[in-house]
Amino acid sequence: xxxxxxxxxxLVQTGGSLRxxxxxxxRTFSFYAMGWFRQAAGKEREFVAAISGNGGNTYYADSVKGxxxxxxxxxxxxxYVEMNSLKPEDTAxxxxxxxxxxxxxxxxxxxxxxxGQGTQVTVSS
Length: 125
Description:
The protein is mainly beta. Helices cover 0% and strands 49% of the residues.
C-alpha cells in the first residue's frame, strides 16, 4: 500500500515556475517508478513525466521536454517536478502516481497502481 500526497500547486503567470512535490508513505519507495500526470478541464488525463526507482532514468512528454524536470529523493520518500516557462496550456490538475519499477509503457496510466489526490496548477494568460 502506497499513499501519495501532492503539494505545491497554485496560480502562476505565463513564463513563471512552480515546483510540485509528492510525498509517499512506506519503506519500499525505491521499488516504485513514479510518474506525474495532468488532467485539464474536459480533457483526458495525460502523461507528463516519470522517473525510475533509483532516479537513474527520466522520461518526459514532448509537450514539457526542456521545461519540466522530474527528480526524487528516496531518503525523503518524495518525488518532485520542477516546472519552468509555464504556459496557459499547462493549466490542469497534476497527479502523482506510483507503479512497480519498470519502464514498460512508462507513459501508460494503466500500469500505475497508486494515485494522489491531485493539486491544481493554473497558469494565467
